[in-house]
Amino acid sequence: MSVSQAAGMLKQAEDILILTHRRPDGDTTGCAGALCRGLRQIGKTAYVLPNSEITRRYAPLIDGLYPPESWQPRFVVTTDIADFNLFPDNALMYQDRVDLVIDHHRSNPGIGRMNLIRPEAGACAEIVYDVMMALGITFTEGIARCIYVAASTDTGCFKYSNTVPHTLRVAAACLETGLDGGEINRELFEVKSWPRFQMERIIFDTMRFFHDKKIALATLYRKDINRVGADMDDLDAIAALPRQIDGVQAGLTLTENEDGSVKASVRTTKEIDASAICRKCGGGGHLRAGGASFPPDVDMPQAIQLILQAAEEVYQESRI
Amino acid sequence: MSVSQAAGMLKQAEDILILTHRRPDGDTTGCAGALCRGLRQIGKTAYVLPNSEITRRYAPLIDGLYPPESWQPRFVVTTDIADFNLFPDNALMYQDRVDLVIDHHRSNPGIGRMNLIRPEAGACAEIVYDVMMALGITFTEGIARCIYVAASTDTGCFKYSNTVPHTLRVAAACLETGLDGGEINRELFEVKSWPRFQMERIIFDTMRFFHDKKIALATLYRKDINRVGADMDDLDAIAALPRQIDGVQAGLTLTENEDGSVKASVRTTKEIDASAICRKCGGGGHLRAGGASFPPDVDMPQAIQLILQAAEEVYQESRI
To answer: Which residues have a Cβ under 8 Å from the Cβ of B252 and sit 6 or more positions away?
Structure first.
């Protein structure tokens, strides 16, 4: 469906509820916050469903937009949700009645009655921006902040290859509202919390290298995570560190969960398929970023062996 | 003067030489590389003056554009050069015969016969882009690469507050040529050389904090720099590290030079004036970034005392 068709649907809709995905990131949250504010601006009743996994970083984008207790929606929109298994628990009741899907994930099978899916968009926020423009919504600084955070976080501050010309033009429109992009980005990308700073030190000091330094392994033990008080926001960015080192083609980060089980985050350069490494450990993902969760009986030393073996196999296969 | 007037001058000009500034960065180099290629495309003879301080990072932007030995220019252009004291030694002979200045530094007094200075531009490359468009130059991928690197490096990959809507729109035009911005940015902003990785470890492990962790001090001793083999490219980005830590308002980095003298790099948040700290040590700079070189007889322990005292004074003054 086209942007103008999606806008047409929203123009007809009343009592609109917007859903965000599990482990909400800047894109899903920023899209929801922007769309909700925009719809209210043109006279709609609109809310964002609370998301219990929201982190301190993105909570401000949708704070105050939650529905009153007994309110019932008549129109349900999802932003940046690729599949039903990404619905938070409190959104499951809407699974069979999603009216409009706005998304940029190629894998989205079309989980709504109507689906506006544009895989060429770097961030879902670009599509939400287009829909809002088609609705004649005035692009205020408050709305621009949501769209900017969404576009910026989903593209590594416009650094990654998924950034397209439209991403940059939407960001330009955001700055034109008077938004201080520099201050926003400083918070998002530069400021390191004390726990994160300390976790980075640990990572740097314990990183190990294999295969002529083509493979880097970092291990985050629970006792260290707890000692420095790191949370999900702190740990999120750390998986990207090992791959940053010159010559490293596969950066493997193993994190010990609260229950002692281990999960792997894999980041690769273009030479190696990250999802192939993760599939060998029961996980999956994309070409350059993937993840896997080991069974509960696999402890850290075993997980190290398994992920290294998987990486070595994929590394060898990639050289054939 | 206007963009179209500058374009008009270049259209009339023949045998054009383009100058870059001392310690050339991505902006001066990218501007020169783009303009030279663009002028050649419309039939001009154009060269970039070699710059002895060019680093491996930016050299490819102007490689192969140097004039033959006995060639003499009839028209001289500077890109991103704010003042005569930024002329490399081999450019001094052109000091009194600069025909056209293209720059974005507010401090530029107008050092040429004609001066196109637009302080509102995040990068000088935005102005060069506009001039090239006014000249009807086709925006090829090779030219776009120069402009993209220039705009990206001068704005911290579009992260800093000096990024304006036009910066992003010019970058969008660059990506439209088919350029892989992600690969370029990975090289520029993500990949850490081994020496830099090791210097970062040293910085992280030796950083000291003062004034309720509002002031962070990092010290780079020559023996460590030499041991890990770090060069200017490696050290450049390191001065930004101390300020990245949550709550730090002034990040002070002291580097021991080859001759044993010490230089200071200061990065601050909006609360503290970096140039004020540096002025107290005989240096200067901008509001959030400054530098100073201590006299040869000041060794590292003394420099530490002096910079800390300066920072504490400015910190106290800022609280009044």
So the answer is: B215, B216, B217, B218, B242, B264, B265, B266, B277, B307, B308, B311
Is B120 near chain A, with CB under 8 Å?
no
ipTM exceeds 0.90, yes or no = no
**Pairing assessment for the beta strands A208-210 and B284-285 based on DSSP bridges:** unpaired
How big, in percent rounded to 5, are the helix, strand and coil portions of chain B?
45, 15, 40
Degrees, nearest 5: CA angle B66-B69-B75: 65
Local mean pLDDT, 10-residue blocks, chain B (320 residues): 96 98 95 98 98 94 96 98 95 97 93 96 97 98 98 93 96 97 90 90 90 94 94 81 92 94 92 92 86 95 97 87
Nearest Cα residue to A93 out of A81, A84, A106 = A84
Strand ranges, E, within A121-277: 208-210, 215-220, 250-256, 262-268
Which backbone phi and psi does A219 adopt, to 5 degrees? -125, 130
Chain B contact for A173, CB < 8 A? yes
Q: Residue A75: CB partners within 8 Å, gap ≥ 6? A: A10, A13, A14, A15, A16, A17, A99, A100
Residue A167 · residue A118 · CB < 8 Å: no
**With an 8 Å Cβ cutoff, are B180 and A161 in contact?**
yes
Q: Give per-residue pLDDT as tens, B251-286.
A: 999 999 999 999 999 999 888 999 899 999 999 877
Taking Cα atoms as reference points, which of B284, B292, B247, B287 lies closest to residue B265? B292
Write out the two tokens for B33: 């590389």
pLDDT in tens, A297-318: 999 999 999 999 999 999 988 8
Out of B165, B194, B204, name the one closest to residue A176 (CB): B165
Q: Are B105 and B119 spatial neighbours (Cβ–Cβ below 8 Å)?
A: yes
**Is B112 in CB contact (< 8 Å) with chain A?**
no
Q: In this predicted structure, what is the pLDDT of residue B286? A: 78
- Cα–Cα distance measured from residue B123 to residue B294, given in angstroms and rounded to the nearest whole number: 30
- Cβ of B204 within 8 Å of Cβ of A197? The answer is yes
Q: What is the largest CA-CA distance in chain B?
A: 62
Measured between CB atoms, does B162 come within 8 Å of chain A? yes
How far is residue B111 from each of residues B4, B104, B209, measured CA to CA in Å? Answer: 20, 13, 43
Query: Could you report the per-residue pLDDT of A188-226, keeping only the tens digit for each?
Result: 988 888 999 999 988 888 899 999 999 999 999 999 999
B254, B263 Cβ separation under 8 angstroms: yes
Q: Tell me the pairing of strands A16-19 and B289-293.
A: unpaired
Q: Which residues does chain B have within 8 Å of residue A200's beta carbon, measured at their own beta carbons? A: 204
CA dihedral B125, B131, B134, B136 (to 10 degrees): -70
Mapped onto helix, strand or coil, the DSSP state of residue A157 is coil
Give the minimum alpha-carbon distance from B192 to chain A in angstroms, rounded to a whole number.
5
Q: What does each C-alpha distance from A62 to A41, A46, A50, A257, B204 come to in angstroms?
A: 15, 12, 8, 28, 35
